[in-house]
Structure formats: C-alpha cells, structure tokens
C-alpha cells in the first residue's frame, strides 16, 4: 500500500508526502476516503492535508470530487536535473532515432532498485509498450534496466537479487547466477538485450550513456516487435546517439566551468 504505516509520531511533512504517494499509475484519481486509506492516515487528517495541498496547487479536484496530482507539482518536477539537463540534451538524438527506426525510444536512469523512464518517444508504427515517461519498471527484465544494473555497484546487484527476481513472462531471467552472467556480457559487448522478458512480442536493446567522467548516468534504448527485431541493426544507431549525448554533456560541463571561472 502507498504511504507509510499508521504512526502517530510521523511528522506533518511525512503525512503530506504519504498523501502524494497515494497516487500512482493505477490510481491517478482518488476520492478523499481512498487517499486516507492508501496513505494510512485518519480521514480528518487527510481532509486537512488534501485541502492545503489543493490550495497550493499540488492537488486538483474534478467535478466528481476526486483528486489528482496538480499542475504546480508537475512544474516543479520538471526542474529536476534529470529533466532539465539530461532530457534536453538527449531529446534531439532520441527524435532522430525514433524517426529513423519508427520504433519506441527510451531514455532511462536508475533510482535505487528500479528503472525510471525520463523520456519515451514513439510512432504510430511502433509496437505497443507498457512504459511511460516518469514510470518505473524492473531492472532485470528490460534492456535499459540491464544496462543500468550492469554498470551499478556490485552491492546494488546483490541487494536487487536478494529481493527475488520476479517473473513477468516465460523468458524472464529469474536466477541470480544467470542474471550475473548476462550483466557481465552486457559490460563486455557494450549493449543489453531483453527479448520478451517484460512483455511478450517485444524486444528491447539498450546502450549506456556516459558522462564526462566515464560514469554511466543513463541508458538509451529501442523497443521493437520481437518478430522483426534485428539486434545488430538496432544497436548500430544507438551507439553514435549515446556518444553524441556524452559529448554534449561534456560540452555543457565545460561551459558551466567557464561561467564559474568568470
């Protein structure tokens, strides 16, 4: 359940955050009662917090009395560095990839033990997928997730496997040893592949995006129909696109340093 457990010692901030985290992709519009239940706070407390959040613009209420995340919270979210910098730099390269492949194109980062999709581009010809901008998916069953997990500290890999590897299709890797070997291959060959491991009929291929210091800060991927997907042809345009993003990140860092020195 979203939110925290019932705890009279929780701060007002913690309770307000539990109200906001009551919303997710499957619960985008909630009644006040549902918010209180999912946030695990008394109805009276939920009423007071929701009213304050609505007045500030973090929540908005529709004609049916249901609440949704407000525009002001969305505006603040766009100020996060992953949006304002990485996304803006990567977007032209993603647009070119989408135009040339006619497939879904993803830019993703790792947040703890999950993949967060920073941006997603698609076309009418692209295969339907479950990912969305701002959404989260597992690391071990997606192409971008494998890239990010392969280049994460070893402690992250151990922690991730200790939770158990969920199976989403018959092709999902659920054995830690096999996943470890797969990630080693990802590091050595420079790209990851997930063939029908998250969704039947889909094949995803992804490559790492490095920053100026060589650290992998994101993954760039393409999702195509598994029947017509040719991995080599998908990797070919991804590599120069990722390198282009790296170069732009380096240039941006250089510009920022020059501004600071003057």
UniProtKB/TrEMBL annotation:
UniProt-recorded name of the protein? Glycerol operon regulatory protein
Q: Which InterPro entries match?
A: GAF-like_dom_sf (IPR029016), HTH_MetabolicPath_Reg (IPR050707), Tscrpt_reg_IclR_C (IPR014757), Tscrpt_reg_IclR_N (IPR005471), WH-like_DNA-bd_sf (IPR036388), WH_DNA-bd_sf (IPR036390)
The entry's function note states:
May be an activator protein for the gylABX operon.
| Positions of the IclR-ED domain | 72-251
Q: Carries keyword Transcription regulation? A: yes
Is Phosphoprotein among the key words of this record?
no
A GO molecular function held by the record: DNA binding
Provide the HTH iclR-type domain boundaries: 10-71
One Pfam family hit: HTH_IclR
Give the taxonomic lineage as stored in the record.
Bacteria, Bacillati, Actinomycetota, Actinomycetes, Pseudonocardiales
Keyword field: DNA-binding, Glycerol metabolism, Transcription, Transcription regulation
A single GO BP: negative regulation of DNA-templated transcription
SUPFAM superfamilies, alphabetically? Answer: GAF domain-like (SSF55781), Winged helix' DNA-binding domain (SSF46785)
């Amino acid at each position: 359940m979203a939110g925290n457990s019932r705890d009279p010692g929780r701060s007002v901030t913690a309770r307000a955050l539990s109200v906001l985290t009551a919303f997710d992709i499957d619960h985008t519009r909630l009644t006040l009662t549902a918010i209180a239940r999912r946030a695990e706070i008394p109805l009276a407390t939920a009423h007071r917090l929701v009213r304050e959040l609505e007045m500030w613009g973090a929540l908005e209420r529709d004609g049916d009395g249901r609440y949704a995340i407000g525009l002001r919270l969305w505006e603040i979210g766009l100020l996060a560095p992953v949006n304002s910098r990485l996304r803006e730099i990567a977007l032209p390269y993603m647009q070119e990839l989408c135009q040339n492949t006619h497939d879904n194109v993803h830019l993703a980062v790792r947040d703890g033990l999950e993949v967060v999709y920073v941006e997603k581009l698609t076309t009418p010809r692209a295969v339907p997928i479950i990912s969305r901008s701002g959404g989260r998916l597992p690391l071990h069953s997606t192409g971008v997730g494998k890239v990010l997990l392969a280049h994460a500290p070893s402690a992250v890999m151990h922690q991730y496997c200790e939770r158990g590897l969920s199976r989403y299709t018959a092709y999902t890797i659920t054995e830690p040893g096999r996943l470890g070997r797969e990630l080693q291959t990802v590091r050595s060959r420079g790209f990851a592949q997930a063939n029908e491991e998250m969704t039947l009929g889909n094949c995803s291929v992804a490559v790492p995006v490095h920053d100026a210091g060589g650290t992998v800060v994101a993954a760039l991927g393409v999702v195509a129909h598994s029947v017509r997907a040719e991995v080599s042809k998908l990797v070919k345009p991804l590599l120069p696109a990722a390198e282009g993003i790296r170069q732009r990140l380096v240039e941006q860092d250089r510009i920022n340093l020059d501004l600071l020195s003057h």
